[in-house]
User: Which sequence fits this backbone?
DNA sequence: TCGGAAACGTTACTTTATACCACCGGGCCG
DNA sequence: CGGCCCGGTGGTATAAAGTAACGTTTCCGA
């Protein structure tokens, strides 16, 4: 599965899309600056590709899309950019799919954590507020004398647009 | 990382270990029978290898250990056995590590779902009751018009035995 | 006992991810 | 000013995880 993926949203004027993308890139740049990380050309290119998708996308899909645009890279280069983007918090990793998506919720970087709802059909990802789930996890961990470091809460299923009986 | 992994528990008399393993295999067999699935030799071998670990283990590690014992298999064979074991509910998959571990809580097969606490040092996994987390996920999904199919909650960190300052 | 489904074997391959080493460019220290 | 360190990049190779396709065997029920 290297190509072809249903769009999570309906059609949108390309000009508007581009403006949105530019804004997202700008916000990413902001995030990098705030963390004293460098928003290099490579990182910007990779981020733009992820953000343009509006869904989760695998590292090798990013690679392929950049290649189509003339930027031929080794996998390792993409992964390095991804690592930096993850560190800056501008993308998230979807563990259950080995894929990545652009974070659209600023507040994640200021304390609140979301859970991920990933559509199996269109690959779109919603980030919704966790409503105490992470606090519960902390409590359960403590009760088990377990020291948590990274917590994953992911749901795989069908988004509203992809539900059967809604053509 | 194909070899060498710290033991999650202290030393235990090998005879006792073997008895425990035999019991686990027996319970697995039970689970297969109840679901009208076949507990074949291959599945039993793979299950025994996973259960003997008392921790999470990757498919290729299982492969290597079976090979050491003279059972040389293709990866696909191991994966097929794993699929059957997952279906029977006698093992779980740890999404964040691409690894598997034996389920030690019968009650999971009767409705209750656990969350997983996975130690980064010894690879041991604790399954603790979710205390309403999955119900919260259902509620949040519904609020987002999302139809959940597979949910997972995993925590990566350090178990009590592996915490710093406890040699 | 025979026919179909489920399990298994074999080969090859895809997808995901990392190790290793060389190089380059910019900032900083002497 | 020169040398050096360091983060980022490029390239090659390879590890690790997972699957497709297809043929053969085994099991079980009609």
Assistant:
């Amino acid at each position: 599965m290297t190509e072809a993926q249903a769009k999570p949203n309906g059609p949108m004027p390309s000009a508007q899309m581009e403006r949105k993308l530019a804004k997202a890139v700008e916000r990413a740049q902001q995030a990098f600056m705030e963390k004293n990380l460098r928003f290099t050309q490579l990182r910007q290119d990779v981020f733009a590709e992820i953000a343009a998708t509006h869904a989760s996308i695998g590292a090798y899909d990013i690679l392929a899309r950049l290649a189509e645009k003339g930027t031929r890279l080794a996998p390792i280069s993409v992964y390095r950019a991804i690592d930096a983007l993850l560190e800056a918090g501008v993308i998230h990793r979807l563990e259950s799919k080995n894929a990545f998506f652009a974070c659209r919720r600023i507040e994640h970087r200021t304390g609140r954590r979301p859970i991920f709802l990933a559509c199996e059909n269109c690959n779109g990802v919603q980030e919704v507020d966790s409503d105490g789930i992470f606090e519960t996890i902390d409590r359960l961990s403590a009760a088990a004398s377990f020291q948590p470091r990274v917590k994953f809460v992911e749901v795989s299923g069908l988004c509203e647009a992809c539900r059967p009986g809604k053509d």
Summary: Strands of chain B lie at 91-94, 99-102, 114-119, 125-129, 147-158. The two ends of chain B are 24 Å apart (CA to CA). Residues 38, 40, 42-43, 73-74, 76-77, 80, 84, 98 of chain B lie near DNA strand C (CB under 10 Å from a C1'). The CA atoms of residues 10 and 161 of chain B lie 9 Å apart.
